[in-house]
Amino acid sequence: MQFSEKKYQNNRHKTFYLSAGEENNKKIYFIHGWPELSISWRNQLGFFSNLGFHAIAPDMRGYGQSSIYDKHADYCQEEIVKDMIELHTHLGGGEAIWVGHDWGSPVVWNIACHHDEYVEKIVSLCVPFKMMENDNMLSSIDRQLYPENEFPYGQWEYQIFYRENFDKAKQSLEDNPRNTVKCLFRSGNVENLGKLANTAFVRKNNGWFKNGIAPDIALDESVLSRKELEIYSKYLSENGFFGPGSWYMNTDLNYEYYKKAPLKKLGKPVLFIHAKYDRVCDTCHTSLADPMRENCSNLREATIESGHWMAQEKPDDVNKTIKEWLAI
């Protein structure tokens, strides 16, 4: 693997990160989501450093070897963005390219809204701008697939379960982290289009898994190798799911933070990559991406035939798509 392990620590936070390429080169940051790690970007770091970038992938707060906190509010977007800006300033500052996936996408969107001076371009995988606003999430639900009387929050039922019963949600993931990882990290499949997402049943099942604990299923090696499985399992076992789950517990704080942003619409170049077979963040068959189209004036869109974990499932396609866009 073409990267080194580094840490940056100040009085408020410690960030572990993977680094590839010359540190004086233009910076491209890769921000992971739930429940991932910096190694989620293992296939991007060497590729983009070979193109002349300084490629950086941090463990976000609550994950891996970065700082862990014991209050939900410690995982609000404002604190997370501070982590990234402090790391970026430490590494030299200036305009950078910010790439986010899953919960990493709201981080890069917030960096663009609050710290435009540090942004050259934005790339988001799966999660569009303004998606995390409740009205946009709810209005995009396919009510033919998710009838409101049965699934009032559609595929987003799991997020509501965190707020209703956080300890139960956390425990069902922690009981067997290794099996949890194997269950979550699955490739996309055209045959699953039009079928209910598993996340829609979390409230019905009173937990993430029907029988209370993640079943022992075969590893999907098109997404993770056994080496990555062990790394994910190690840190999710050691740190638990309080931190990762707490990212879902700050809806009000995150909205207050967004309201303070100097920018509500984005003019910098944005690339959004749709995952064609993502049944949760379904931007290909719903209106979920429409608010982004209305609020990003320099937007390019692309679609990759993958599931939600596209940077790991289809790394060559992701890398090629970003590379070609950066050359525009």
How would you describe this protein?
This protein is α/β, with parallel strands linked by helices. The protein has helices at 42-50, 77-90, 104-114, 134-139, 157-164, 166-174, 177-184, 226-239, 242-246, 251-259, 290-295, 310-313, 315-326; strands at 4-9, 14-20, 27-31, 54-58, 96-101, 119-125, 270-275, 299-304. The protein starts with a strand and ends with a helix. The model has no long low-confidence stretch (mean pLDDT 96).
What's this entry about, in short?
This protein has helices spanning 42-50, 77-90, 104-114, 134-139, 157-164, 166-174, 177-184, 226-239, 242-246, 251-259, 290-295, 310-313, 315-326; strands spanning 4-9, 14-20, 27-31, 54-58, 96-101, 119-125, 270-275, 299-304.
Spell out the blueprint of helices and strands.
Elements lengths: L3 E6 L4 E7 L6 E5 L10 H9 L3 E5 L18 H14 L5 E6 L2 H11 L4 E7 L8 H6 L17 H8 L1 H9 L2 H8 L41 H14 L2 H5 L4 H9 L10 E6 L14 H6 L3 E6 L5 H4 L1 H12 L2
Helix pairs in contact: 1-13, 2-3, 5-6, 7-8
Specify the CATH class. Answer: Alpha Beta
As a percent range, the share of helical residues equals 25-40%
Unreliable stretches, pLDDT < 50, 5 or more residues?
none
The count of β-strands is 8
State the helix count: 13
Beta-strand share of residues: 5-15%
Q: What Rg is obtained from the alpha carbons, in whole angstroms?
A: 18 Å
Helix-strand makeup class: alpha/beta
Look up the CATH topology: Rossmann fold
> Which of globular, elongated, flat, extended, rod-shaped describes the shape?
globular
Name the CATH homologous superfamily: Alpha/Beta hydrolase fold, catalytic domain
Per CATH, which architecture? 3-Layer(aba) Sandwich
Mean pLDDT: 96
Query: H/E order of the elements?
Result: EEEHEHEHEHHHHHHHEHEHH
The CA-CA distance between the termini, in Å, is 28 Å
Instruction: Give the biggest sheet.
Output: 8 strands, mixed
Number of domains: 1
- Strand order, sheet with most strands: 1-2-4-3-5-6-7-8
